[in-house]
Amino acid sequence: MTAPRAWFGQPRGLTILFLTNMWEQFSYYGMRALLVYYMTKQLLMAQGTASLVYGTYTACAYFTPIVGGVIADRLLGKRRAIIIGGSIMAAGHFMMTFEPLFYPALATIALGNGLFLPSLPSQIDDLYEPGDPRVGWAYNVYYVGVNIGGFLAPLVCGTLGELYGWHWGFGAAGIGMVAGLCIYLWGQRYLPPQARYPVVERTGPRPAVRFPRETLVLLAAIGLSVTVFRAAYEQVGNTVALWADTGVDRRLGAGAIPMTWFQALNPLLVMVMTPPLLAMWRRRAERGSVERPARKMALGATIAAGAYLLLALLAWFGGQAHWLWLALFFALLTLGELYILPTGLGLFARLAPEGLGATTVAAWYLATFAGSLSAGLVGTLWSRIGHAPYFLLLAGLAGSAGLMLRALDPRERRVAGGTDR
Predict the structure, then answer these.
(1) How far apart are CA 117 and CA 82, in angstroms?
(2) Is residue 204 part of a domain?
(3) Is the pTM here over 0.90, yes or no?
(4) What is the pLDDT of residues 394-421, one digit of tens each?
(5) CATH of the domain at 331
(6) Dihedral of CA 383/386/390/393: which sign?
(7) What tens digit of pLDDT does each residue of 105-125 get?
(8) Residue 11 — φ and ψ, nearest 5°?
(9) Domain boundary residue among 199, 232, 267?
(10) What's the structural domain count of the chain?
(11) Which among 199, 224, 239 is the end of a domain?
């Protein structure tokens, strides 16, 4: 008997995964929206130290899933990995409400995320029979959950933290994680049984799978380019957040816009910009004009460089910039993000040799890990050089990534095949 469909003709299990992920993202981005402010204002950390801690934490949040995915596949099974990982993350968020537990709390959240993050989306394919065409856009529906949670998090957790106390915001993030776990447990009957058990190794010798050398070189070069790009991109929750606090006129009517609200702009703009961008790319594809992935990523990095160049100009003229300029910055940065980051992930998945799909996608997370760590190191320069030169440096990093990606276009064409249109 076919399971009832609940949302846009998709299995009900997709709705469960969607809502679980939405609340997990709410908790992660809610805590992250407060983190650098909490360290500099409450814990009175030096700015350079706070930026380094922020970068190290976000980097670890992308590194632990590489190990956690193996543990989930081989030992725990996806269901138990999500329950254990989500419970650990919730505990970490609640630990953030106690100042002496700050560092253990960050480590706890990162460890729980390692089990949770790779196990949830990997259940999507299990909802469908082989060849089901609906799986093609199931990931688009799922990705909306990331951005809804990321959009709501600064508005709820950020507002509570700014107006009523940092620990209220961290506590709200923990409640969000618990809500996601409850939804996941409640919806077990709609999820595939494959999610409950670890993978059993087959007996007998397994054929060796190797990366073609040219593919390996291409992916390594793209990963390096993305690492350079993320050193600039990841400043949104770090030094850009600090600038929003002191360098932006946030007055609106008789009040002021909370500084954490600006971090809700990125996920909101992702939701707003994605449909017209997809429609534009589809029209171009129908006309036979398809832009190569490396060129598209290079364009995205260049747009992001323009966003940081805008901040450099605003800082150069001095004084507080109107908040609309910051909104324009986020619009440009988000547009660049949509060109480079989803395209890069898709390219890594598409070029993966058979039998090495998870390993290849894990390599993408390695680039994210290295980029986040680099962003923390770059953030330590915020207090050492002027704001205008600092933003100019970020523009240079993003622009350099664009040049590197553009130079990879011929190699990408040879490896992936096809012609330049």
Answers:
(1) 8
(2) no
(3) no
(4) 999 999 999 999 999 888 888 876 444 3
(5) 1.20.1250.20
(6) negative
(7) 999 999 998 888 777 776 776
(8) -60, 150
(9) 199
(10) 2
(11) 199
